[in-house]
Amino acid sequence: MAVPVETEKLVGDIRAIKEALGKELLILTHHYQRKEIIDLGDFRGDSFGLSQKAAENSQVRFIVFCGVHFMAESAAILAQPHQTVQIPDYEAGCWMADMADSHDVEKAWEEIASISGDSTVVPLVYMNSDAYLKAFCGRHGGTVCTSSNADQAMRWGFSIGQKILFFPDQHLGRNVGNQMGLKPEEMIVWDPKKPSGGNGPEDIARARLILWDGYCLVHTRFEVEHILQMREKFPEAKIVVHPECTQEVVALSDACGSTSFIVNYVKNAPPGATIIIGTEINLIHRLALVNRDKTVLELHRSLCPNMFRINLKNLLWTLENIGQVNVVTVPDAVKADALIALNQMLKLPSNTG
Ligand code: 13P
Ligand code: SF4
User: Fold this and answer.
1) Burial of 346 per CB tally in 10 Å (0-12, 13-18, 19+)
2) Cys bridge to 252: 6, 145, 215, 227, which one at CB 3.0-4.6 A?
3) Which residues make Cβ contacts (< 8 Å) with residue 292, sequence separation at least 6?
4) Is residue 72 lining ligand 2, measured as CB closer than 6 Å?
């Protein structure tokens, strides 16, 4: 298929600026980005890998983050003072991250502490959250996790405390809790709109894992019905899903793991294999393109519109205004506490499969 002239011009202009800036520039791209953006990046990865890259590359001056805001913000926290982090579209947010704000979490924290007696509660925040929540975890002896190290983070949390408050994604928390052998009655959901999160004092006292009532609209679109239909159509296929899916979907799949786990699962499958994936559609399309010796199919079409906001036009505009526009900043006091939690996370091993 011929590339439209406008696309060709945008790509050419981006490449020219990249060349001019040379080693001063680092373009990071998340796995859910459109293919044309991935092709222009210096490094692609999941949120854990990208935060590692941002922390490692202290020699670059400009980091352009093609992903969503919480990822760019984490890079800004990890960046050195001489570096700027820019995001091509400031509106590229994350619905799940918006489901927990620091006021509600502080309120829940106090309520849980007042009921938990002598138990130590460890706060564990998913990377998909704003800097204030990461700072909250830094101040209260907790850490950050991504889907590639949530099990390690939870193990770490239970090694220093009796209870974990996990936010904002209840599904990732529950799936990891299940994997660690927690009983359903040891996991409760905290709904910030209800008094005591909708729980009785004895539920809170018994709980080991308190799950914030947040979720990803992209990953909760996958349903048991989709798995049943695909199993009937492709009985020989393997089904792999992201842990932001519901526990019912995870239970019926063959494997569940982070974005990097899924990438490696497809790469390591034998030639001729059929793999059906429950995650963001742009990643699935790219995996199908680069693994032509296998059949890679979507469990159901589900696109993250936030990730999709980054395009060639706003990437070019960002590069034309390097260091100037859509600069992601975090207040110093917040940054210092958030860095404690992020550095704690970077010490955890990750499971990229
Ligand atoms: P990763 O941590 O696997 O990159 O995923 C982030 C995300 O937003 C998934 O929906
Ligand atoms: Fe947020 Fe879901 Fe998009 Fe990931 S896929 S960035 S969790 S809205």
Assistant:
1) middle
2) 227
3) none
4) no
> 10-residue block means of pLDDT along the chain (353 residues)?
85 98 96 97 91 84 97 93 96 97 96 85 97 97 95 96 97 98 97 95 94 98 98 98 98 96 97 98 97 98 98 98 97 96 84 43
Rg (CA), the chain: 21
The range of the structural domain enclosing residue 248 comes to 219-303
User: From the CA of 261, which ligand is nearest?
Assistant: 1
Do the Cβ atoms of 28 and 65 come closer than 8 Å? yes
Q: Return the residue whose CA atom lies nearest to atom 6 of ligand 1.
A: 47
Q: How many CB atoms lie within 10 A of CB 301?
A: 8
pTM above 0.85, yes or no: yes
Under DSSP, the state recorded for 303 is: -
In a domain, 130, yes or no: yes
| 341 shares a domain with 321 | no
For the Cβ of 94 lying below 6 angstroms from any atom of ligand 2, the answer is yes
C-alpha closest to that of 258 among 172, 181, 143 = 172
- Beta-bridge partner residues of 28: 43, 65
Q: How far apart are CA 34 and CA 283, in angstroms?
A: 8
| Beta-carbon count within 10 A of 87 CB | 27
Q: Distance, CA 345 to ligand 1 centroid (Å)?
A: 15
Residues 6+ apart with CB under 8 A from 108: 165, 190, 192, 197, 212
Q: How far is the C-alpha of 305 from the C-alpha of 19, rounded, in Å? A: 30
Whether residues 101 and 181 fall in one domain? yes
One domain for residues 55 and 133: no
Which stretches does DSSP call E strand in the chain?
A: 25-30, 43-45, 62-66, 84-86, 121-126, 143-145, 163-167, 187-190, 209-212, 238-241, 255-256, 274-278, 295-298
In the chain, the number of structural domains is: 3
**Does a structural domain hold residue 353?**
no
Residues with CB under 6 A from ligand 1: 46-48, 127-128, 146-147, 216, 244, 258-259
